[in-house]
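Good morning C.,

I know you're traveling, so I'll keep this short. The sequence:
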Amino acid sequence: MSKTILTGTTLALGSLLLFACAQGSKERRSPATASLLASELVEAQAAFELVYDVLQHPRCLNCHPAGDRPLQYDAGRAHSMNVVRGPDDRGVPGMRCDGCHGTSNAPLPHMPPGVSSGWRLAPREMVFEGRSRAELALQLMDPKLSHMDGEQLLEHVAHDPLVQWGWNPGPGRDPVPVPHEDFVDAFRTWLDAGAPTPTEEARR
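The tokens, ready to paste straight into the viewer:
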């Protein structure tokens, strides 16, 4: 194959891959680097697989439910005592989250966990439960749903005490098995590649 054909193929592939990237993260890539995206896409897709696996773990999933009731345990059972979200995601009058959940984990197994920033559900728009890879990727990169841009999301997963709690959930609970540092690195890799939307073909 001639050098001219190879160059044309590379540029065409770069254009297609740029089009597949989430719209909110276009500024993270410049046209001059478009030809590098073919190899980077493979790495980015692998990175998002790790991100998705973490976000589907019960430590994350239970606070990002599809409905207005938080979930409990690895089985994802609806929270006992009919606990519900409330208007500010922190419960309803008479049954607020901080009525049981303190600022640190209780010392005994399966007692209410706690976190320094205060216990709460994720916003209703940020559902993880039941989301496919593509749906979750697009949701994360839509500021109307995530309430954050890419840099704020990275800061959130790296430093928010509620996120970090997933790796230190207290007695009787399994932490997220992927090291937190690896999760953050994978999230960064995916963002830096333009947050491409996963496809079933990319997983084969």
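Safe travels,
E.
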